[in-house]
């Protein structure tokens, strides 16, 4: 059984899915603006919701830092840019794939 964790590297706009210490998959992401930066640190996924509505695209995964999450987007051109209020944006097909692989309580590291 895989032991997945996530590393989000803000410097290269990438989310990496790791199984133990091996990168299994990489996904491009959009991150927080300069004034609403994505918070660096160690978190866990605390909830998951399909079709959350609004600007959150096809899926939402809430982080242990309140009001922050990994989610899809209805604006795919925002991926690879500093555009969010601090959340991690992914293409809808990518967030659906990721959500199908990582369970609640998965570790998420956000780094510069």
Structure notes:
The chain has 112 residues and is mainly beta. It has one domain (4-111): L,D-transpeptidase catalytic domain-like (Beta Barrel), CATH 2.40.440. It has one helix at 92-101; strands at residues 4-9, 14-19, 22-28, 31-32, 41-50, 59-63, 69-71, 82-84, 88-89, 107-111. The strands form two sheets. An eight-stranded mixed β-sheet has the order 3-2-1-10-5-6-7-9, covered by helices on one side. A two-stranded parallel sheet has the order 4-8. β5 and β6 form a beta hairpin.
Short précis:
Keywords: Cell shape, Cell wall biogenesis/degradation, Glycosyltransferase, Hydrolase, Peptidoglycan synthesis, Transferase. The chain has 112 residues and is mainly beta.
Beta content comes to 35-45%
Distance between the ends: 30 Å
From the 3D structure, determine the CATH topology. Answer: L,D-transpeptidase catalytic domain-like
Number of domains: 1
Instruction: Calculate Rg over CA atoms.
Output: 12 Å
The gross shape turns out to be globular
The number of distinct helices, counting runs of at least 4 residues, comes to 1
CATH superfamily placement:
L,D-transpeptidase catalytic domain-like
Helix content: under 10%
The low-confidence parts are: none
Largest sheet: 8 strands, mixed
Helices and strands, in N-to-C order? EEEEEEEEEHE
Residue-averaged pLDDT, rounded? Answer: 97
So, CATH architecture? Beta Barrel
């Amino acid at each position: 059984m895989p032991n997945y964790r996530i590393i989000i590297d803000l410097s290269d706009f990438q989310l990496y899915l790791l199984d133990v210490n091996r990168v299994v998959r990489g996904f491009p992401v959009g991150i927080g603006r300069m004034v609403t930066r994505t918070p660096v640190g160690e978190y866990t996924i605390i909830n998951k919701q399909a079709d959350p509505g609004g600007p959150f695209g096809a899926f939402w995964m809430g982080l242990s830092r309140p009001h922050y999450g990994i989610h899809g987007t209805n604006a795919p051109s925002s991926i690879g840019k500093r555009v969010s209020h601090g959340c991690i944006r992914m293409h809808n097909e990518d967030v659906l794939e990721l959500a199908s692989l990582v369970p609640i309580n998965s570790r998420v590291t956000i780094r510069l």
